[in-house]
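User: Can you model how NAI sits in this protein?
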Amino acid sequence: MDTQNDKRDLYTVIDDDNIAWLHFDKQDSSTNVLSASVLEAFYEELLELVERAPRGLVIVSDKPNGFIAGADVREFTRLENHDQALSAIQRGQAVFDRLAALPFPSVALIHGFCLGGGLEMALACRYRVARDDPGTRLGLPEVRLGIHPGFGGSVRLTPLVGALHAMDLMLSGRTVDGRAARRMGFVDHAVPERHLHAAARAMIMDPPFPHRPSKLQALSNHPWVRPLLARVFRHQVSKKAREDHYPAPYALIDVWQEHAGDERAMLHAEAASVADLIVGPTAQNLIRVFLLQETLKALGQKSDFKPAHVHVIGAGIMGGDIAAWCALRGMRVTLADQSPERIAPAVKRAHRLFKRRLKRPRPIQEAMDRLMPDHKGIGVEHADVVIEAIFEDAEAKRSLYQQLEPRMREDAVLATNTSSIPLAELRDVLSKPARLVGIHFFNPVAKMQLVEIVRDDTTDPEVVNRAIRFTRKIDRLPLPVTSTPGFLVNRVLMPYLLEAVELENEGIPAAEIDRQALAFGMPMGPVELADTVGLDICLHVAENLGKHLDTPVPQRLRDLVRQGRLGRKSGEGFYQYKKGKAVKPAPPKGYQPPDSVSDRMILRMLNEVVACLREHVVEEPDHLDGGMVYGTGFAPFRGGPLRYIETVGADTLLQRLGKLEQTLGPRFTPDPGWELVSGFTDEEKTGG
Ligand code: NAI
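Assistant: Here's the modeled complex, given as structure tokens:
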């Protein structure tokens, strides 16, 4: 019996066994998300089902990419105050309460993404069946948006699998596959695709006892145990995120510690806590960053290019890792260098990456098969994308392009990974100069999500679109930038790093400099970052950029490189390294750093950001914030440098910059770009 109704985003089919199959299929969207209107439609559907009294309910998604990816994050930005947020959250809780209270068994049939609100819905079902494959990912990643589960997720997961597993998932925001979810206990069966429907049907036809935690797991929620465990959780979280920057995980621990065991009270506290967090600055900024990421991802939709084969030339640090990453993401890869001996280490590194990421022997072997060493460069003729990653030498690159172009397919993209050479200096050897584009990866490739797509007025826009599409295909985040010195990321990082070197040279302990950058919210201190990048590379980039941007290169950096202190890779740079870890001598007792340390580093960075804005290094101001967060790790909870300027006030920052200029000289001279972000009118400026 088919009783499909006319609702747009979901519908129910009742089969011959009287099982109701409720399908989610959000219209005009490739992914199911729980907007307020979808939740309402779901609620009505549940009410109708109660009337119809089927034998059981199975919730499924019609989307190939997954079950439900979570709440509709865009709606979060429209919440104006705590009360409005609270009523939206409580409404969601009421809908899932209705699901949990159904008088017949319910099963969530999960494939692909089952995240946030999607998993909370599944947890409100009596059973969960997940597809057993690496593409099925379950998790509660709300902390990454500065909140925690609010639709009863923390209330249902903690008693189901115990606090250790539940809090681990919610505090880290990490996702797991179906098999791991079954081991933890919040999925009843993880089965291959072909058994999914039969498994769900069986649970309705012959309902087993719902899953119960082990005694030990149950004990973790006991009132005597909670204070102790809460302390452990807080300690673990504090190693990753400071409470003043990221309050959500701490708030979640409080909710659990105070209310676990009392479902109603915990639901209430969960909703109140999320309502507080969601209208706060951290959540709003993290949501902004998430949406910026979505914007950059969407750039890939401008082209229907479907690259399958990439040819990489240069199997060094970058080329080798780019090739490995592309193979990991499913592309066919040929990797060329001057000799097979130079390719071998890259293949070895690739194997290590595949082992770490893919874990099981068969996918590892398949990835290895996709990565073909090709020292003769036979792949050039077939490739959709050719990436050059040889030495940073314009002449070498140009002569390579001359050999490559006649052999490349007409429609193939020719890309360079250069970090400093303008496209204009490279392309005139080509018969079609407009085809050269920069695809600038960062080191380490597997970790750095951002990729700069470098172009100038000559570059064919379709080539740029193709480069972006390729970047999305390998699951990296494209940031279009102009072919100007340092592009965006290196250009903005450099003054910040160089100021840290100046500070160190003036006698401020390196550990103190790093500590202050961390306190601002950077993921790693600038001194350790310089050591990690390699001081020789820093010097090279600084000299290069210094010429263009009038940035002095500190003598201290030159001295260290001359002494062979190159940073982490040589065992010593600013710090010494023991087993790859920096030894950071603590500042002397009672040491009081000058007030200006943090400002000096951050304001130089911001000054360069507004210069980039003025010079249109990126297409949209928002791209600057996205690029800085994903390319430099700029404190995500601050929402990006431009948002930070807006929050603190451009006039305040300008005044501080002006003071530094007076005492420390022209490297602090405000860039004219501040006018673009300043709230001043011209009159006020001349007056002030
Ligand atoms: P690398 O020195 O590790 O590797 C370069 C490789 O290219 C060597 O294996 C060399 O044998 C090979 N090669 C040189 N000429 C060749 C030719 N004509 N044909 C085939 N192979 C040739 O260099 P790295 O660090 O990987 O840099 C490569 C490019 O990536 C440079 O343009 C660099 O500016 C850029 N880059 C480097 C980053 C880094 O952190 N190392 C970051 C981002 C970009």
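A couple of observations from the model: Residues 22 and 59 are 5 Å apart (CA to CA). Residues 313-319, 336-338, 342, 389-392, 396, 400, 417-419, 441-443, 537 surround NAI (CB under 6 Å).
User: Helpful, thanks.
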